[in-house]
Amino acid sequence: MKRFIIRIIIIFLIGVFQSSFFNLFSIGRSAVKPNFLLLMIIFYALSSGCYEGAITGFWAGLAQDIISGKILGVYAAIGLVAGLLIGLLKERIYRDNAAVNALLVFIITILYELAVALCIGTNIWGRGRFFYCFFNIIFIEALYNAVMSLWMFKVMNKIKGPENGYMQIKREVEPYR
Fold first, then answer.
1. Fewest C-beta in 10 Å: which of 43, 63, 102, 158?
2. The pTM is what?
3. Which tens digit of pLDDT belongs to each residue from 98-129?
4. 34 Cβ partners below 8 Å, 6+ apart?
């Protein structure tokens, strides 16, 4: 229970920093910044499975709902479903390869942001707006998240501990005598 409460506090702190301090890291005309809450959902879903991913996704989404001031529950529902679906990939992918991790984060970010745009009703579906929004906002955020995941997954792995973390430590096998 203590770890759960600490994780919720960390989620809300990341949410507050993401909406304020991390604006310093925004790039491009559209002020795109990495989505650290999504990276946290991906990390916990891939390291702990569907249940932990869904719980982390719900709380990270709720934090994003509260901070954004939009309709309460939309980000929570999307985060819950994202954490659940990503958790299904836990046993199906090779997690010790940084390139695989970055590619997975890139694809998940695109799908997540399209789901957010669809659920919130953002007007990106009009004539010509989709390609503009996709290439100037979603695609850049996906690249940014993929690059930031290389650093964040290492940090989160150290916080969670090597035996419970995302990348498992390879133990040396004693030679047969």
1. 158
2. 0.81
3. 888 899 999 999 999 888 888 876 666 666 67
4. 22, 25, 141, 144, 145, 148
